[in-house]
Amino acid sequence: MKIKPTFYFIFLFPVFFQAMAYYGYESSYFPYKIQEAPSEWYYKGIYQYRFLSREAVDMITALLKRIMTYENFPLKSYIQKKGTSYYHALFLYNTFFAVAVSWMLNFVLKNKTFFPEFNVKSRMLVVFVMTIISAFSQYVIVHYDNFAIFLLLCGFYFSFQYYHSDYSVKWMVLLNAIIVISTLNRETSCLNISFLGSLLLFNTPLNNKENILNVVKKLFIPVCSFILPYLILRLLLPQEEGEGYYFFESITLWSNLTGINQIAGWLYAIVFIRFIYFFIPTVNNRKLANYFLILSTPYI
Fold first, then answer.
1. φ, ψ at 73 (rounded to 5°)
2. What does the domain layout of the chain look like in residue ranges?
3. pLDDT, mean of each 10-residue run, the chain (300 residues)
4. Are 134 and 148 in contact (CB under 8 A)?
């Protein structure tokens, strides 16, 4: 049976690069390799609301610990030498969603309205580059990033379907479900609202108040799908006094613009955005990207 080339880009390369990142550089992630459980700060402040992936990794960790109790388990000593059960659980969880991200990104790029020039080779090139960036830009290993990106891409896909189906209720329900689930994982779920808003504004004349009002109406339920779960989490998991976290975590505009790490982050963002624009040369696609960047500014 012949294996399709897309299989390598969507499945094998994400697994290969994730394995290199986790096990190929012994010194980089050494502190994580000896961790038995998540750091305490994952249960405090704003991080306690990002519990979905944390709990999933805890379940995988418990399963791996149970497997490691079997004396005759193959490669047991080798696996234990390479890291704790918690570290391996992080690898398995993040690798699974790295593959899922590649798969969903391929689906998103198949949209012929906004990516008409993209053939299979173009899609695989983008997937390949994004896979490398995702694997080797993890200067800190966390539970929720790859899952958050996967949910974000699912939201993009459902937004496209909602837009092309003349605003079908089915796709709106699916999009709202993704936003709710994503909110329990990370606040990046609000970027799905930004993307939907970009699509709604794409062909909407802004000189008409009625058109703008219609866009606001269509965004009302998705906004509620983000705000309500987040507020409920705030009520159910109140922050302890003195933790040093606030509703907006911390607003330090000046340090975000002047710190060395922040400046490096901004430079990385500029290069990354330029890379994205390289693959969307048409005016219409750039118009959509511009709307998305503007509407995403509050989160960024």
1. -70, 125
2. 5-296
3. 79 91 68 80 81 91 88 79 88 94 92 82 88 79 89 94 91 95 90 91 78 88 92 80 48 58 69 71 73 79
4. no
Q: What is the pTM (predicted TM-score) of this model?
A: 0.86
Query: What is the Cα–Cα distance from 118 to 58, expressed in whole angstroms?
Result: 40
Rounded to an integer, what distance in angstroms lies between the CA atom of residue 117 and that of residue 123?
Answer: 10
DSSP assignment of the chain: -PPPHHHIIIIIHHHHHHHHHHHS-TTTTHHHHT-SS--GGGGSGGGGG-HHHHHHHHHHHHHHHHHTT-TT-TTHHHHHHT--HHHHHHHHHHHHHHHHHHHHHHHHHT-TTT-TT--HHHHHHHHHHHHHHHHHT-SS--SSHHHHHHHHHHHHHHHHHHHHTTS-HHHHHHHHHHHHHHHTT-GGGHHHHHHHHHHHHHT--TT-HHHHHHHHHHHHHHHHHHHHHHHHHHHHSPPPTTS--BTTB---HHHHHHSHHHHHHHHHHHHHHHHHHHT--SHHHHHHHHHHHHHHTTT-
**Cα(165)–Cα(246) distance, rounded to whole angstroms?**
41
